[in-house]
Write a structure and sequence with these properties.
The structure is a homodimer.
Chain A lengths: L1 H30 L6 H20 L1 H9 L1 H6 L5 H17 L3 H21 L5 H20 L9 H7 L5 H23 L15 H15 L8 E3 L5 E5 L2 E6 L6 H19 L16 H15 L3 H14 L1 H4 L4 H8 L16 H17 L7 H13 L26 H20 L3 H6 L4 H10 L9 H9 L6 H14 L4
Parallel strand pairs in A: 1-3
Antiparallel strand pairs in A: 2-3
Helix pairs in contact in A: 1-2, 1-3, 2-6, 6-7, 9-16, 10-11, 11-12, 12-18, 16-17, 16-18, 18-22
Chain lengths: ~500, ~500
């Protein structure tokens, strides 16, 4: 049996190495590749992805998984070997159901669609992307139909990123959350807006970056096993447990941009760096779901990075880096500026409170398109109507409306947005559990120490990688299933104090 | 037939994409990879190289080549299709003769041996590398024995990098060259050494780099299809015709380091950028041999970059960049400094005249080891003896003696050094032909213009890629077989004038 398991690992490592190479090709394309490299790079990426898919879904891995079933059943559920076989089987059974041609067509179409979007967005041209979006919808439906027996056509798409969740469970959670959010947003936005002008002075790029790197090193991001570069859109990527990189973007005239995107991506990266090294190169060596991953980025970015306690320690340091801009700005003004709540157009710029309304709007429109209740050509009108009713303002154009997010223009509609709000919810639930285990964490944060929090997250979440599903992990870590209660408590406490709500 | 040819191209593109990805993994490892990435990176590189080898030597390509033979024979030798089939067959027939296990073992051993060398060299520890060198010799012999019927055991190894050359032909050329070189070296080194102290002041890194990039852009290196980064050892690498990168290293206290390594690598890179775009991703899209490649790097570095005419234009610009260091240094003093001839220990630091003696020494020792006439354990003594007789000085240690070059410590002994001197010879022969076609080239260089030279090289050498062998190309371009006469004329003219010889 050990021999079979070794054979399985060898084949999985081969697939992993192809995928890791593809990830590096993508990282390079986003950071340093000269423009002339683009056409060949697209082909090279497609070749690697196709070979990885072929190697993974070929008969060898299926046979090994069958042969290993008795071994798996002889082991405890939590053992590394059983978990490796179980998770590999789940991924394998999903992947073999998708015909190679469909996977290839989605990949090709996604690249093409993305290219068209990058030109259509600045031109505010929805007509131009319409046929691509229609094809994306068609392909997404075909993908879902590879998994018959679903309750909702979006279920298989959600299962890709948030295994274990369905439209029904997500809609239930979102519905509850919405009931609490809307009155909070209304109460806050009835007040005069916070003054965030102190963030919009001139801040030198290099100093912004250096400050951010200093912060995330203190969080626990290991620069011997990672690095930060600049890209148009920030992201985290992993080539091995020993090489997990992040990117950021800097705005000279908006201090919050690089700072919080750096903390956010470092949250993702610490999750990946913290996986048990024994899982290197195997399917267990990944964060377990989109929602769980996002919970870690949001925990460090928001729950920690936008907390008053964090700035009790770091604000004087930031003032030392930017004395001219900040020496006259009191901590409370700065703290309120970085937590300014307002109705706004762009999801990625939205504050923690309104952010979830942006996500829910997209989630519901995705479902409507997949159900056939909304035609793609009517999407801009539906967007505008929903935006007005939820956020009380109308997008002035497509650019900052329906064309703002890249996700739908990467070739898939459905299953791509729910993770953001699930992440917010989980971040608070997990943080409450961390505080229960270690009540001194907030005091440590006020002293610029994050070792206890990082250690607790590593032991309880990071090191498990994909061994447990998100639901299993939440239960293990918090003793409860997914619940919005801690998140509501978090928002009410923080913003209640900031805006003197009741 | 067209369908078969398309199938062949598809399979060759797949192999190319795996190799291009491996090249990017290597580039990243040398430039930006954090140290923690090393173990997984070695595995990922090995996986990609193994898959590329398997894909190339699998039965499919052999069958297609057989099926395409009548088509190839129906076409003129120079046609792109015939050349693609011919060159692919040559590479295929070579690659299939090497058992996959031997290829894998050489790759593994090479990586391990390199690692040991990086630690043993600073420690001056030959004993440590001895068993690795012995294994490299054994593996190199095994590799050669995959190609029975050779006259000399090094012939198949030379054919890898300089197809068409053999020990006999190289030794003949080197012997002739040596007869001319030795008296020149003696005559020059009998004189007091040139003063190169002006190169050894403090020169800021960024300005050195910016000056170098300005020069190579004027040469014709296209930064939209390339870029320069810093590495420990400079190199050129290619991911596609649209993405050919170079690296350099900078010494704050030696102006010649970055400047000439930049020109050198740009020479390699312009060759690769200049290949006919129709060959993208196919075996024709490569420089044709090690010697021909080196001729292009040495042409731009030495024949152009160390010429007086070049500095007639550029010296005042360099003085503007570094006024404090150079405003009092006349052009003639600078020109003599960058062409200082001296007996020295390190090949890569050697001047154009003595450089070839360093290469010949290595070439002869390689042959002696492969023949069994020299035991690996006796290599340091043999090195010392030959160094004293050829260069009139003894290396004080192994570090700057037999351990100085990485080549033998990458897993192969034989076939790796001859290209450097062949390159010097070819550079002069090719440049003479360029001047014959365009006598105004030297005048243009004095005005900082390189368009005619770059255009002529592109048309006559670069664009052909690997369509012609080096010998064929030299004949086509110069109307003659390889000859040392132009190189001797070049050296005698340049150094005769610099050192008032005869």
């Amino acid at each position: 049996m050990e021999k079979k398991l070794d054979q399985l690992k060898q084949r999985l490592l081969e697939v992993n190495d192809l995928n890791a190479a593809a990830a590096l090709l993508y990282w390079d394309q986003s950071t340093y590749m000269p423009p002339g490299g683009a056409p060949a790079r697209a082909r090279q990426l497609a070749t690697l992805q196709r070979l990885a898919h072929e190697k993974f879904t070929g008969p060898a891995i299926g046979k090994l998984l069958d042969a290993l079933r008795p071994y798996e059943e002889s082991l405890p559920y939590e053992s590394d070997d059983a978990s490796l076989i179980r998770v590999t089987r789940r991924l394998y059974e999903r992947e073999v159901k998708v015909p190679t041609e469909l996977a290839a067509e989605m990949s090709r179409h996604g690249a093409e669609s993305y290219q068209v979007w990058t030109e259509a967005r600045p031109d505010n041209d929805f007509e131009r992307v319409l046929p691509y979006l229609e094809k994306s919808l068609d392909l997404s439906r075909q993908l879902a139909d590879c998994f018959p027996g679903y309750d909702h056509i979006a279920d298989p798409l959600i299962a890709y990123s948030d295994y274990g969740m369905t439209v029904a469970t997500v809609a239930q959670v979102f519905g509850e959350l919405r009931e609490h959010l809307v009155p909070i947003v209304q109460a806050i936005t009835a007040q005069p807006p916070a003054d965030d002008s102190c963030l919009r002075l001139l801040y030198a790029e290099d100093q912004q970056l250096a400050f951010g790197v200093d912060v995330i090193e203190r969080f626990g991001y290991d620069l011997k096993r990672g690095r930060q570069d600049k890209t148009h859109h920030p992201f985290e990527t992993k080539f091995s447990i020993g090489d997990v990189r992040i990117t950021t973007r800097v705005q000279e005239r908006f201090l919050a941009e690089a700072m919080f995107s750096t903390m956010h991506e470092a949250g993702h990266a610490m999750y990946e760096q913290g996986v048990n090294p024994a899982y290197e190169g195997l399917p267990l060596a990944r964060g377990t779901s989109s929602g769980m991953h996002e919970s870690q980025s949001r925990l460090w970015e928001n729950v920690v990075g936008r907390s008053r306690g964090f700035w009790v320690y770091f604000y004087s340091r930031l003032q030392q880096v930017f004395p001219e801009q900040l020496c006259e700005v009191p901590l409370d003004v700065f703290y309120k500026a970085i937590n300014k709540v307002e109705r706004s157009l762009i999801r990625t710029d939205a504050d923690e409170v309104t952010y979830n309304l942006h996500v829910m709007l997209r989630f519901d429109l995705e479902l409507a398109m997949l159900e056939g209740a909304l035609e793609v050509r009517d999407l801009p009108d539906a967007w505008r109507a929903r935006f007005e009713s939820d956020l009380g303002m109308a997008p002035p154009d497509h650019r900052d409306g329906v064309l703002q997010d890249v996700h739908w223009f990467m070739g898939q509609i459905g299953g791509v947005f729910q993770g953001y709000t699930l992440g917010n919810i989980i971040s608070a639930q997990v943080y409450e559990a961390a505080l229960k285990a270690h009540p001194a964490i907030p005091d440590e944060i006020e002293e610029g120490e994050f070792g206890t929090l990082h250690g607790w997250l590593s032991d309880n979440i990071y090191r498990h990688g994909r061994k447990f599903t998100a639901s299993e992990l939440i239960e293990r870590v918090t003793g409860q299933p997914l619940t919005i209660a801690p998140y509501i408590r978090y928002l009410k406490t923080k913003y209640g104090e900031l805006y003197n709500l009741r």
